[in-house]
Specification:
Blueprint (H helix, E strand, L loop, with lengths): L2 E6 L6 H16 L3 E4 L4 H12 L3 E6 L4 H6 L10 E3 L3 H13 L2 E5 L3 H12 L3 E4 L6 H12 L7 E3 L3 H11 L1
Parallel strand pairs: 1-2, 1-5, 2-3, 3-4, 5-6, 6-7
Helix pairs in contact: 1-2, 1-7, 4-5
Length: 173
């Protein structure tokens, strides 16, 4: 089963982005992919909730060592949800998720944390699927890679729809 990390802002309140995240979560679940998230709110939470409602398998990779600490960080309660408790903090969690769990990643908007996750993914030689037309880090990652490490450009696939994303994912499955 291909493990797909969905990354994006944990503090997102934009309904358009949250709707896209939910559509991605549903599609991944229906496609039989394992949906990985950083176990945060915003984009990750919308993706995971939709994947669960669609009957899919999910795994949250938490920066905390246990649920109590997770919630003390202001993150959503993980009771009843499969979770890896890294205890590694946010940046450490990003490394654990991208190096040890994710086969590839889908990037929806995002800020600095998402940019960090995406760079780790690309440095590991893993495919990155983006929705650059929606702004945020997803709109910048291609330019950053072309300017700093052009040999990795082939790993970035720009998508304009969930259907296009799912077609691209089927190629590497």
């Amino acid at each position: 089963m291909l493990k797909v990390a969905v990354i994006g802002s944990a503090v997102c309140t934009d309904d358009r982005l949250l709707s896209l995240a939910a559509a991605v979560g549903r599609a991944l679940a229906k496609g039989g992919f394992l949906v990985l998230t950083g176990a945060c709110g915003g984009i990750p939470q919308a993706t995971e909730a939709a994947a669960i409602r669609a009957g899919g398998a999910t795994l949250g990779i938490s920066p905390a060592s246990k649920n109590k600490v997770h919630q003390q960080l202001g993150l959503p309660d993980r009771r009843g949800k499969p979770t890896v408790w890294t205890g590694a903090g946010f940046k450490g969690r990003n490394v654990v998720m991208m190096e040890s769990y994710a086969d590839c990643a889908v990037m929806i908007h995002g800020g600095l944390g998402t940019l960090n996750e995406s760079l780790i993914c690309l440095e590991k030689g893993r495919m990155m699927y983006t929705f650059p037309g929606l702004g945020g880090a997803a709109a910048l990652i291609e330019s950053i890679i072309v300017n700093l490490h052009p040999s990795l450009r082939y790993l970035i696939v720009d998508c304009t729809s969930v259907t296009e994303l799912m077609t691209a994912l089927k190629v590497i499955e």
